[in-house]
Design a protein that fits this description.
With 264 residues, the protein is α/β, with parallel strands linked by helices. It has twelve helices and eight strands.
C-alpha cells in the first residue's frame, strides 16, 4: 500500500501517494480531470520495486484542496514543479494521463531541467476548444448521481464493499467548480498547445487513443503534430483503445512505459 501524505504548495494543501524506496529513481504520475492519485495504483504497483513514485491529487480533486479559483493550466504546472522541488526529486520521469498529459507537455517545454523524460497518455490538444460543452456536462452529471444508484450498480457487478465505496468516491471526490473552471478557462490551450509541443526538449512519448473509441486526438491532428515536433518526440497510436489506456490495457501500458524508462 502507498503512503498517504500532504504538502503545502502555492498556499494550498496538496495530497499525494508515495510508493517505493526514496533512494530509487523518481517517477511522478499525474492524473486527468475528475480522476485522482489512486487511479495509478495498478501501474505504480508494477514499478515500485525499482522506482520511487509520487502521484498527487491535482488541486480540486481527491484529498487536495479545492480553492474557488486557480485552475489555469499554468497553476497545475506550477503545483507539479513545486512538488518536485519541495520533495527534492531528482529529475523524475513524468507520466501523465489526459489533463495530466497536458501538464506534462507544458513542463517538458518550459521546465526541461525539472524532469528527465515524459510519457504522455492521450493528452487533450485541439479537442480542448469544445470540451467545455462536450465533457463538462458528463463530469457534472457524475457528481449528481445518487449514491443509491452507484451502490445498486456495484452490486449488479458483484463488487465488494470496499470496491463499492471506491466507486462512490470516484464519482464524487472532485469539485464541480474546479472542473467548470478547468474546462472553461483553458480553451485557448487548443490553439497554444502546438507552441509547447515544438519546444519539448526531453525524450517524450505521446500515446494517442483511437478517436472513434473516445481518444482525444483525430488522425489528422496526430499527423500534424508529428511533423512539427522534434526527433525526441514520438507519437504512438493505439488503434484498439480509447482514452484510458493504462486502465484498459495495463500490461501493454506497463511494457511500453518500462521500455521507455530503460532506453531513454
Amino acid at each position: 500500500m502507498p503512503e498517504s501524505k500532504t504538502i503545502d504548495i502555492q498556499d494550498i494543501t496538496i495530497h499525494y501517494l508515495e510508493w517505493g524506496d526514496p533512494h530509487s529513481p523518481d517517477l511522478v504520475m499525474v492524473h486527468g480531470w475528475t480522476n485522482f492519485a489512486q487511479s495509478w495504483s495498478e501501474i505504480a504497483a508494477r514499478f515500485e520495486k525499482d522506482y520511487h513514485i509520487i502521484a498527487p491529487d491535482n488541486r480540486g480533486h481527491g484529498q487536495s484542496a479545492k480553492p474557488g479559483t486557480g485552475y489555469h493550466l499554468q497553476d497545475f504546472v506550477q503545483d507539479t514543479k513545486e512538488l518536485i522541488e519541495k520533495l527534492d526529486l531528482k529529475r523524475p520521469a513524468y507520466i501523465g494521463h489526459s489533463w495530466g498529459a497536458n501538464i506534462g507537455t507544458m513542463l517538458a517545454a518550459n521546465h526541461p531541467g525539472i524532469i528527465s523524460k515524459a510519457f504522455l497518455e492521450d493528452p487533450v490538444y485541439w479537442k480542448f476548444i469544445n470540451s467545455f460543452v462536450t465533457s463538462l456536462p458528463v463530469g457534472l452529471n457524475r457528481l449528481k448521481r445518487p449514491e443509491s444508484e452507484i451502490i445498486n450498480e456495484a452490486k449488479s457487478k458483484g463488487l465488494t464493499d470496499e470496491e463499492t465505496n471506491q466507486e462512490i468516491y470516484r464519482h464524487h471526490h472532485f469539485s464541480g467548480n474546479a472542473l467548470t473552471h478547468l474546462l472553461q478557462d483553458n480553451r485557448s490551450w487548443a490553439l497554444e498547445c502546438e507552441n509547447y509541443l515544438r519546444r519539448i526538449s526531453v525524450p517524450t512519448v505521446i500515446l494517442a487513443g483511437n478517436n472513434d473509441m473516445g481518444g482525444a486526438m483525430i488522425p489528422e491532428e496526430i499527423d500534424y503534430f508529428s511533423n512539427i515536433t522534434g526527433e525526441n518526440v514520438e507519437f504512438r497510436l493505439w488503434d484498439d483503445t480509447g482514452h484510458g489506456m493504462h486502465t484498459a490495457q495495463p500490461n501493454r501500458f506497463t511494457q511500453q512505459l518500462s521500455d521507455f524508462l530503460e532506453n531513454n
